[in-house]
Amino acid sequence: MSEARLLYLKQIKRRQRWIRFFQFSALILTVALWEILARVGFIDSFLMSQPTRVWRTISNFQQNQLFTHIGVTLLETVIGFTAGVALGILTAFILWWSDFLSRVAEPYLVVFNALPKIALGPIIIIWVGAGMQAVIVMALAISLIVTIMEMLAGFKNADPELIKMVKTFGAGRLQTFVKIVFPSSLPTLFNCLKINIGLTLVGVIAGEFLVSRAGLGYLIVFGGQVFQMDLVMTSVIILGIVAALLYRLVALLEWVVLRMLTVN
């Protein structure tokens, strides 16, 4: 490897280290400033809480059953995310297969995507009942349409020249999809997964606001009702950590799959 190449790689690593340093410093500075302002009375710790009180709440995880609530939210998110991705890809495949169905469904997809999904909450509760199933359906309602539209656009944007080439060799529509369309849509798929994990979590929390008796969304509502802002802020912070970890898992899955495809 040339010296110029080595120097370039060192510059990239140095830049990444500086980015991590400033990210971590910004987090530490924010937490420290929050604690200091609460201690000097500039902000009301009863309304805004403070880091030490949040840490005290986390330390009493057994009393607050934090692990149970985190587990419920994670389970609902994983089920909703998996179901949303599977149904979204299947529906997008059907619409790609039939241009007639795609044209018929297009305006309905646009309208349903623009519809505030929280307005469907009472209807969902009546249809499927109050409980985990309602939370999962709410998550599906928020993430499914986005998956369908994103994947359908990815399927339709496959290289037309490659499609023509495989058709000249006698490939059928299913073979064309498996060999050309779907592999070329992998970047769209992983981008959709990264968007979807956040949307699914939003749907789960919205569902827990309405009907759940467990989960981080339930803790936020419960803490607000009894004015335990420490519990509310703790739940929000844990929710942010959960969202970041889920996003990183999807990014790791993307790296593994693309690396395997590159090796093969």
Radius of gyration: 23 Å
Structure class: mainly alpha
Figure out the total of helices: 13
Q: In CATH's first tier, which class of the largest domain applies? A: Mainly Alpha
Average pLDDT metric: 84
- What's the domain count? 2
Order of helices and strands: HHHHHHHHHHHHH
Low-pLDDT ranges: none
Strand content: under 5%
First-to-last CA distance: 24 Å
Query: Based on DSSP secondary structure assignment, what is the total number of beta strands?
Result: 0
User: Going by CATH, what is the homologous superfamily of the largest domain?
Assistant: MetI-like
Name the helicity range.
over 70%
Which architecture of the largest domain per CATH?
Orthogonal Bundle
CATH topology of the largest domain: MetI-like fold
Principal-axes geometry comes out as flat
Largest beta-sheet characterization: none
Quick tags:
264 residues; mainly alpha; 13 helices; 0% strand
Describe the structure.
With 264 residues, the protein is mainly alpha-helical. The protein has 2 domains: 3-43; 62-263, Orthogonal Bundle (MetI-like fold). It has helices at residues 3-39, 45-48, 51-59, 61-64, 66-97, 99-114, 121-128, 132-156, 160-168, 173-184, 186-210, 216-225, 229-263. Helix 5 (66-97) crosses helix 12. The longest helix is centred in the N-terminal third of the chain and has 37 residues, at 3-39.
